[in-house]
Amino acid sequence: MKQYSDNHIVVPRFNEKNGFYTTKQRSGLMRKIKSKNTKQELKLRRALWALGYRYRKNLTSLPGKPDIVYPKYKLAIFVDGEFWHGFNWQEKKEKIQTNRAFWVPKIERNMQRDKQNNQLLIDNGWHVMRFWEKGLKEDFDGCVQRIIGYIHEKKPGQNRM
Description:
By secondary structure, this protein is an alpha+beta fold.
């Protein structure tokens, strides 16, 4: 794997030995959070499928396991949750009060990994699109049009302007 200039952020293990504690109720809620097949991801996939755009999903052979992949067009699409991937991070970081010593490095490492995966994909000729779940909620049709626009631009035999 190619080394990048960012220093690797080390995330401490989340356990009582390291001073982190959470209630059983909070633990149960956190366990229910999905990493794949989120509501917005499913909505996007259904819309693309209904429009006739077939895709691969969660391709493990690609860095970051993109949520939606169009190998023919070398297009990797990620649907990112705001908390886990650091949306508006500088502002949100200050609001984290519980287990800060774990969550701040955890989210920052996720952000660092996203950048590295983007770069690895780009270095291998892929086009990367990342959508915030919030962005899909606010402008779903616009996001779908960005994807379709890119595919049409890359289709062989199409007039390119």
